[in-house]
Design brief:
Largest sheet: none
Family: Belongs to the V-ATPase V0D/AC39 subunit family.
Oligomer: single chain
Distance between the termini: 28 Å
Number of helices: 17
Helix content: 55-70%
Organism: Clostridium cellulovorans (strain ATCC 35296 / DSM 3052 / OCM 3 / 743B)
Strand content: under 5%
Protein name: H+transporting two-sector ATPase C (AC39) subunit
Shape: globular
Keywords: Ion transport, Transport
InterPro entries: ATPase_csu/dsu_sf, ATPase_V0-cplx_csu/dsu, V-ATPase_V0D/AC39_subunit, V-type_ATPase_csu/dsu, V-type_ATPase_csu/dsu_dom_3
Structural class: mainly alpha
Length: 333
């Protein structure tokens, strides 16, 4: 892929970046006296276009869903390479695959959990899973569904469905990465795999599951070798942090496990993992050509939606502003 292919679209993305929520607006939402007042702050931004659909503050997810759909529709229309947007949209396809599989296996309606974003239309995805006719799906999607359905027949464990589907999602991301052949995309995917694997390592230890289970969960293809991750299974948290001090994730590990050691919570590690990726994306501000500004804008927009969700959940549950601030990862702006 020629990095100069994106020179015309990047100035437009730089303009769109100026419309992202800045720290002042985020702080105003946090400091607002109630969820209604927090929502009014969004009424001063691009989100105002959806306010007529919101009857009460608790319906904020409608607003976030509409903005996510608008963002991806716009990106697919202006980005020269569809594959590049697919990289960021693919997680929604695999999320929806999980939802449809659980509907099929458990006989329940989870349609409220579906996200209408991705490379596959929801109707086609649902038909493929309910009829087990996979001809319109990618190879990785087909393998993910077939493996998950077969595994459930053997183990009857819905948690394993998520693990299997996530593994195949990263397999498909690696295929796209090979086609695009860009160092920035490779770093983004490999770093995401590493941080996902490290989270899995500590989650498996917390749940007292076996080393064999960890081996089935760990995803290959990151900078940290799969065998290197599984070899840490028997180590203490302190030893794991020490043994990985040479990696780029040293600070994430060192600062991310204070709460884990105290109460087994991975929240701080997850927040710092998000910050690690965000700091990588922020480097795109200095780049005037290449794919980095495109990845960065999509990531920044999705992060903004995540921040709004955390704030609104906090406001609706009367959580103190300081506690909400502690839960927020870094903003792009």
């Amino acid at each position: 892929m020629n990095r100069l292919d994106f020179t015309q679209v990047i100035p437009r993305l730089k303009v769109l970046e100026t419309k992202l929520l800045d720290k002042t607006k985020i702080d105003r939402m946090i400091d607002s006296k109630d969820p209604e007042e927090a929502l009014k702050v969004l009424g001063e931004t691009e989100y105002a276009a959806y306010m007529t659909n919101i009857k009460r503050a608790a319906d904020y997810e409608v607003l976030l869903s509409e903005e996510l759909k608008r963002t991806y529709k716009m990106l697919y229309s202006i980005i020269p390479s569809k594959d590049l947007v697919d990289v960021m949209a693919l997680k929604y396809d695999y999320h929806n695959i999980k939802v449809f599989i659980k509907e099929k296996l458990l006989g329940k309606d989870f349609s409220n959990m579906l996200i209408p974003i991705g490379i596959m239309e929801l109707d086609k995805l649902k038909y493929a899973i309910t009829s087990e006719d996979f001809r319109d799906l990618t190879l990785s999607m087909r393998n993910a569904i077939e493996t998950a359905l077969s595994d459930f027949q053997n183990f009857k464990d819905p948690q394993r469905i998520d693990i299997i589907i996530d593994g195949y999602m990263f397999e498909e991301l690696k295929v796209i990465d090979k086609n695009i052949k860009d160092k920035a995309l490779e770093k983004f995917i490999k770093s995401t795999i590493d941080l996902t694997n490290l989270k899995s390592l500590f989650r498996v230890k917390k749940q007292n599951k076996s080393k064999e289970f960890l081996n089935s969960v760990v995803i290959s293809g990151g900078y940290l070798d799969k065998d290197r991750i599984t070899a840490l299974f028997s180590d203490t948290v302190e030893n794991i942090v020490s043994k990985l001090a040479y990696t780029d994730y040293s600070d994430v590990l060192k600062n991310g496990f204070d709460n884990y050691i105290k109460d087994g919570s991975l929240n701080n590690f997850e927040k710092l993992s998000d910050n690690y990726i965000m700091n990588f994306m922020k480097n795109a501000k200095l780049i005037s050509f290449g794919i980095e500004p495109i990845l960065a804008y999509i990531y920044a927009k999705e992060n903004e939606l995540k921040l709004i969700r955390i704030i609104m959940v906090g406001k609706l549950n009367n959580i103190a502003g300081e506690v909400i601030k502690e839960r927020l990862c870094e903003n792009y702006v």
